[in-house]
Design a protein that fits this description.
The complex is a heterotrimer of chains A (168), B (422) and C (722). Chain A is of the alpha+beta class. Helix content of chain A is 28%, strand content 20%. Chain A has six helices and eight strands, in the order βαββαββαββααβα. In chain A, strand 6 (110-111) and strand 7 form a beta hairpin. Chain C has four domains: 20-73, Phosphorylase Kinase, domain 1 (2-Layer Sandwich), CATH 3.30.200; 83-153 and 347-511, Rossmann fold; 170-343 and 553-569, Dimethylsulfoxide Reductase, domain 2 (3-Layer(aba) Sandwich), CATH 3.40.228; 592-720, Beta Barrel (Barwin-like endoglucanases), CATH 2.40.40.20. Chain C is of the alpha/beta class and 722 residues long. The longest helix of chain C is centred in the first third of the chain and has 19 residues, at 99-117. Classes of the chains: A alpha+beta (168), B alpha/beta (422), C alpha/beta (722). Chains in contact: A-B, A-C.
């Protein structure tokens, strides 16, 4: 497994939804008949009055290291892609029992009209061949990246340090 | 452990979710000790959760193997099918098979699962009621349901298994009467008001409910191949088949008739170790902490079996390598979801009423939910929820699916914070 | 899955998958954007889109609208053939006809109108897209009509006028080299998100940021000073900036002395607008005004990032923005690196660092010999500064026939909901004898046309675009046209031939026209054709600094005019030479009588990132992100009105009312309602009258009027309005 992962930095996200639509485009999502987007953007308003702030979060499957959904799936439909580490669903094996929905703390699993579960697969079919996930490819601010998770954390730390220095 | 014992294989008793998860964990954790699987089954591994889908005709036999793409057979050094166990000689680190053979082990995992029981259901001369647990049970049930003349089925039991059987029957276009001793369905997991809503939904869909009743007398007519049942109300009905879904009991009869544990499951510590040295247990035959009550009991849930099996496998691998096991299994909270036709029921935690609890209902028309709140450190925390929904909402339940997992996670956190002390 | 199957699933281009990446530009919003589009084409069909990484302006990014290109191009609402109306206007009943039949009929009807009522009775209008405007203007003038009009009648022209009146020509912020930027109404999270890449970088480098906006935008949250003003009070705020800068001696005395006129009058004007007074008018703190004015005037260099429409969508819009633009001259930040720089456009309103003959191509000089344009009498300053007619005056002229009757309309992209009082606008258009609309989609406006022509989208046609860093792209079609769609220019060329206008160049088609326009640049079509992905312009030059030293400013005085010489000429119209602050015509201050019944300030301009006007409502992907029309309401106002978050409410003004969902949010001021516009079932622009206009520019006062809100019990009514 390579150690590249989908990384999200809420400080950089402006809630523009480009990632959400790029995901629909990549995955040919039929929002009219299935109503299922894999990636969702939410806006969280914090504080009030002059202190009001909006934090934007772009979220899809977290591809958890210890993924509860993997344990909960009784049909083998969910599995981890060895090459990318992504948790993927093989819809042909899904029986629509909703056990993954019950297991996932993030509300990720959704079921289409054929009753099977659908979700983000971290574009494993792209990353395998050196292409970025569609959401990362399009992100205008670099809030979503496909990179070494530790590297992303280090960069965020460096930026925070710089802001501390500036604040002095 | 002596030299001889150390050179023994790891023996896994059972070939279900807990057993396979343990084997995977043994290998993932670098354990190279040979594995012997001892099972009373004759078939390839299967997922018991899938048997109702098989009986209902939704999936084929080969789809019941949740591990089809893994080389499970390749992980097993010796597979003893069709083999029943008579006893465990813990001191000698040996199993005794019913054929009198002795199998030595370095570590033993008991993952034998459970079997259906039918307490109090009257015996039928000439007819063996159906059950749903093993693949063989499912084969029988399916054969019965697809029979041309099968129109009316009595399902005894209104717990999750009963509803699973109901789903299979509906998939095979069979009329169903559900019989339950309790005055309401889903007694263990649903709040009375939620259960009542669900009952109404079932009745609206043509399912007959006989709740708070029992079968007093039964008889089987060989000529018409029907079962006549006299209920406690005095009414009588005839059915083409009867399915018993009243509960399960761990498969631990080899522990001896005097061992009370075989009724309820082997008590284990957080690393799935039983009181017998080098004997582990996982899955439906193990008793672990129900975080919502603090009681030790069999979880009876697929996900728990997987996680317990993995924990046991990891612990065995660690001990075999001379290390102290890490990553304990901390217990479970009851959580269930069932999807019957356009109806969905989900529950997690505990909806017990009490002075220390506040129950809140949210009626959104097609979606009806109940929440149980309890106070912890001056803060009101979620300890249980139920939801039942129907219609397009269920098919389009993007939001509902999003919610249930979050509630379950929230409840689990509450109970972990409470230290299982409620 | 084997590797090939996986690659096909991942849409990985290559010879094995047969997926080819073709380059184009996105023209869903326009201009100044045109993000580079990578179209993944398999078997002639687009199967995925992405941003073009090599595009120096968009860096491989797209917004949510551009990302939905596939649904835009392959929408079931695309017009596939020319259509002739069979039902009543607006009914949407049409029959398909051939191109020949359509063009013959159009030519005959336009010639008939010309014959009977004069060529000026025919209007030539361009909405979106904007790329073919030069061709349309040339075509209109060939035809003999001065009435070339565009959607800029309610978009950018007033902002340009405010700059022309002040210093002769637009001066864009030189963001890259600045140390301080004032975002006077810009929300890149919702529009022009391609700007975010640069903004993020500058913010990380520590550029000072001042944000002026009635809402707490993302940018506002990162500003050093944020001024959340009442909509329509920008002028007062800008004058108070001037007050601080003059009073504290922070202005560029040398520049003001040598290169401005009217400073003494301006000094007197701003003296009266103390920060305290402005604070009261605008609803911001005087201390923040002082801090912002000091930061802007003492940071060297500093620029003002203005935007096309927000500040001029008030009945006092031109003067408001003039007051803002005066600050650029006051601080000497004009036409210097890091300030606001004049950079003449090369093509389609955009500078590209090279000279062209686009203006000559339009033949605008022919206007002088023609009858007066629509709106010329009512908005004389518009007519003087701008080559277009003012489309907001169309309904009046249709109704009155003054100064001459209007009989026909030929439109490329008509959207009646862009006009104030949209419903009465389209009703007036129905009085015309003949309407043609060319559009990719059968829009609600197209349903009023007698003939509808299917237009190609950007990915099906060729168009030339340029960008300020000296980059140019002459696109190739990435796919065959959908149905029988044609490029707007092909339509004009064919029609020109049918009408016998004798315009050989236009009739020769787009390559010939582009070659002609590019002549002074040294660029050739042959060279551009080798680079469908675009190319750097050889020898492209950034604009020189301080060009005024040699040429002065293009104002009557040749200087920056605090007191406008042009406006002074029209004092009979009631225009003031100085950028005096006047309340919006409908505000709680100007109309306390109305405010008793309609106590909230209504702003119709808010945008969401997935929508640009009506352009992406019809795409399921973008629509799913925000399916219902809504209004942003402050929590206090919501509580006072008994409105719950997400519930249906009625927003009413003296002109009408709409049903929308309430979005309760602290990002809007107490007392303001921001209504998202252009929804077919809740058209915000019907909430003001067609005459609610800025007297100088003729621009509608979209962003400040009065309203009230109340819970709508008839929720179902709202839900069913679609």
């Amino acid at each position: 497994m390579n150690n590249k992962a989908l990384c999200f930095d809420s400080e950089k996200c402006v809630g523009c939804y480009a990632c959400a639509v790029a995901c629909m485009d990549q995955n040919d999502i039929d929002v009219v008949h299935d109503g299922l987007a894999y990636r969702h953007v939410t806006h969280i308003e914090i504080g009030g009055g002059s202190e009001v702030r909006v934090v934007h979060v772009s979220m899809a499957c977290m591809h958890c290291e210890t993924a509860e959904c993997l344990d909960a799936c009784p049909s083998g439909a969910l599995k981890r892609d060895a090459a990318s580490g992504a948790v993927i669903v093989r819809r042909e094996l899904c029986i629509g029992c909703h056990a993954c929905a019950m297991a996932c703390p993030f509300g990720v699993p959704r079921f289409g009209h054929d009753g099977t579960m659908q979700k983000c697969d971290a574009c494993y079919a792209r990353t395998r061949f050196g292409c970025d996930p569609a959401c990362v490819e399009i992100c205008p601010t670099g809030a979503l990246r496909f990179c070494d998770a530790n590297e992303a954390a280090a960069q965020k730390q460096a930026r925070f340090a710089a802001s501390l220095a500036k604040a002095r | 452990m002596g030299e001889r014992v150390l050179s023994n294989p790891v023996v896994v008793l059972g070939f279900g979710a807990a057993a396979i998860s343990a084997m995977l964990a043994l290998r993932e954790n670098g354990c190279a000790v040979p594995i012997t699987v001892v099972t009373d089954a004759t078939s390839e591994p299967y997922s018991p959760v899938l048997t109702s889908y098989y009986a209902g005709g939704r999936i084929a036999r080969h789809q019941c193997n949740a591990w089809a793409d893994l080389d499970i057979a390749g992980m097993v050094d010796e597979l003893r099918e069709n083999t029943r166990i008579r006893a465990i000689d813990a001191e000698a680190h040996e199993l005794e098979t019913c054929d009198g053979e002795r199998i030595g082990y370095s570590k033993l995992l008991v993952a034998t699962g459970a079997h259906p029981i039918a307490p109090g259901f009257p015996y039928l001369e000439g007819y063996r009621p159906l059950v749903l647990r093993t693949m063989a049970d499912a084969e029988r049930l399916k054969t019965a349901l697809v029979r041309e003349s099968c129109h009316e089925v009595l399902v005894a039991g209104t717990s999750m298994v009963g509803l699973k059987v109901l789903e299979a029957c509906l998939d095979q276009s069979v009329q169903v009467t559900m019989l339950g001793r309790s005055p309401r369905i889903l007694r263990a997991s649903a709040h009375a008001d939620i259960a009542a809503r669900f009952e109404r939904m079932l009745e609206q869909r043509g399912i007959t409910l006989r709740l708070g009743q029992t079968a007093e007398q039964t008889s089987y007519d060989e000529a018409t191949r029907t079962c006549e049942v006299a209920f406690s109300t005095g009414e009588r009905s005839s059915f083409d088949e009867i399915v018993l879904a009243q509960g399960v009991q761990p498969n631990l009869d080899f522990l001896g008739p005097n061992d009370a544990e075989h009724l309820q499951g082997l008590v284990v510590d957080p690393f799935m170790r039983t009181t017998m040295p080098d004997v582990f247990a996982a899955g439906d035959c193990a008793r672990v902490t129900d975080l919502s009550t603090g009681e030790m009991r069999s979880a009876g849930l697929w996900q728990c079996a997987v996680q317990q099996g993995r924990c046991a496998g990891r612990a065995m691998a660690a001990e075999l390598a001379g290390r102290v096991p890490t990553l304990p299994y901390t217990g479970f909270i009851p959580a269930n979801v069932i999807h019957v036709r356009d109806m969905l029921f989900a529950s997690a935690g505990s909806l017990r009423e009490g002075a220390d609890r506040r129950i809140e209902f949210r009626d959104e028309g097609a979606v009806f939910s109940a929440f149980a709140w309890a106070e912890l450190a001056g803060e009101e925390r979620l300890v249980g929820f139920n939801v039942v929904s129907e219609g397009a909402q269920t098919c389009d339940c993007e939001e509902l699916d999003g919610r249930i997992g979050r509630y379950r996670a929230e409840i689990r956190k509450t109970f972990l914070d409470m230290g299982g002390s409620i | 899955m084997n590797d090939l199957e996986l690659k096909l699933k991942g849409k990985v281009p290559g010879p094995d998958t047969g997926i080819e990446v073709r380059k184009s530009v996105c023209a869903i919003c326009d201009p100044g954007t045109q993000c580079g589009l990578d179209l993944y084409v398999k078997d002639g069909v687009i199967i995925k889109v992405a941003g073009t990484k090599e595009a120096p302006h968009s860096h491989g990014t797209l917004c949510s609208k551009g990302a939905a290109t596939r649904q835009y191009v392959y929408s079931p609402e695309r017009v596939l053939t020319p259509l002739r109306r069979t039902g009543t206007r607006g009914s949407g009943q049409f029959e398909p006809i051939s191109w020949d039949e359509a063009l013959d009929e159009i030519a005959a009807r336009l010639a008939e109108a010309k014959e009977r009522f004069g060529p000026e009775s025919v209007m030539f209008f361009s909405g979106y897209a904007k790329w073919a405007r030069a061709y349309l203007m040339r075509f209109a003038l060939d035809f003999g009509s001065p009435n070339y009009l565009t959607e800029s009648s309610t978009c950018a022209t007033a902002m340009i006028m405010a700059q022309q009146l002040t210093y002769g020509a637009p001066a864009a912020p030189d963001f890259k080299n600045t140390s301080c930027v004032v975002y006077w109404s810009h929300n890149p999270s919702a529009t022009k998100s391609l700007n975010l890449v640069g903004i993020q970088k500058k913010l990380d480098e520590g550029v000072k940021v001042i944000v002026v906006d009635p809402r707490v935008t993302d940018l506002a949250q990162r500003a050093d000073v944020f001024l959340q003003l009442r909509p329509g009070t920008d002028g007062a705020l800008a004058l108070a900036f001037g007050h601080v800068i003059v009073e504290e001696g922070l202005y560029d005395k040398d520049f003001v002395e040598k290169w401005t006129v009217g400073f003494n009058d301006y000094r007197a004007l701003v003296a009266a607008m103390t920060p305290e007074k402005a604070a009261e008018i605008c609803g911001v703190s005087a201390a923040d005004i002082r801090a912002a004015a000091r930061l802007y005037s003492t940071s060297k260099p500093a620029c003002i990032h203005f935007s096309a429409a927000p500040v001029v969508h008030h009945t006092n819009g031109v003067q408001n923005y003039r007051a803002v633009f005066c600050l650029i001259g006051l601080t000497g930040n004009l036409d210097i690196a890091g300030g606001n720089r004049m950079n003449p456009p090369s093509l389609v309103h955009q500078p590209g660092g090279f000279p062209t003959r686009e203006r000559e191509f339009t033949g605008a000089n022919r206007l002088v010999d023609m009858p007066e344009r629509i709106g010329s009498a009512r908005f004389p300053v518009w007519a003087r500064l701008c080559n277009e007619a003012q489309a907001c005056d169309i309904p009046r002229q249709i109704k009155t026939g003054d100064p001459y009757p209007l009989k026909a309309l030929f439109a490329l992209g008509l959207n009646h909901r862009m006009w104030p009082g949209s419903q009465s606008f389209i009703e007036q258009l129905c009085e015309l004898d003949f309407i043609v609309d060319a559009d990719p989609f059968l829009t609600d406006s197209a349903k009023y046309a007698d003939i509808v022509l299917p237009s190609a989208t950007s990915v099906e046609r060729r168009e030339i675009r340029c960008w300020p860093m000296g980059y140019v792209q002459f696109t190739q079609p990435a796919i065959e046209p959908v149905g029988e769609a044609r490029s707007d220019v092909d339509i004009l060329a064919a029609l020109s031939a049918k009408l016998g206008l004798g315009d050989d160049l236009l009739e020769a088609g787009i390559e010939a026209c582009v070659e002609w326009m590019l002549e002074p640049s040294g660029l050739t079509v042959a060279e551009l054709n080798k680079h469908p992905e675009g190319m750097w312009v050889p020898g492209a030059k950034p604009p020189a600094e301080r060009k005024y030293l040699a040429a002065g400013f293009r104002t009557p005085s040749g200087k920056v005019e605090f007191a406008s010489g042009v406006l002074a000429e029209y004092d009979l119209c009631g225009y003031e030479a100085l950028p005096e602050y006047r309340e919006p015509a409908m505000s709680p201050v100007s109309r306390p009588d109305l405010a008793a019944e309609f106590p909230l300030v209504l702003n119709l301009g808010a945008r969401l990132p997935m929508y640009q006007h009506t352009r992406t409502f019809r795409l399921p992907w973008t629509r799913s992100l925000s399916p219902d029309p809504h209004a942003d309401i402050n929590p206090s106002d919501a509580e006072r009105s008994g409105v719950e978050d997400g519930s249906w409410i009625r927003v009413s003004t003296p002109a009408g009312s709409v049903l929308v969902r309430a979005h309760i949010t602290g990002i809007v001021r107490e007392g303001d309602v921001h209504l998202y516009h252009d929804w077919p079932q809740a058209n915000a622009n019907d909430l003001i009258d067609g005459d609610y206009l800025d007297p100088i520019s003729g621009f509608p006062g979209y962003r400040s009027s009065l309203c009230r809100i109340e819970p709508a019990d008839d929720q179902q009514e709202g839900a069913h309005h679609e």
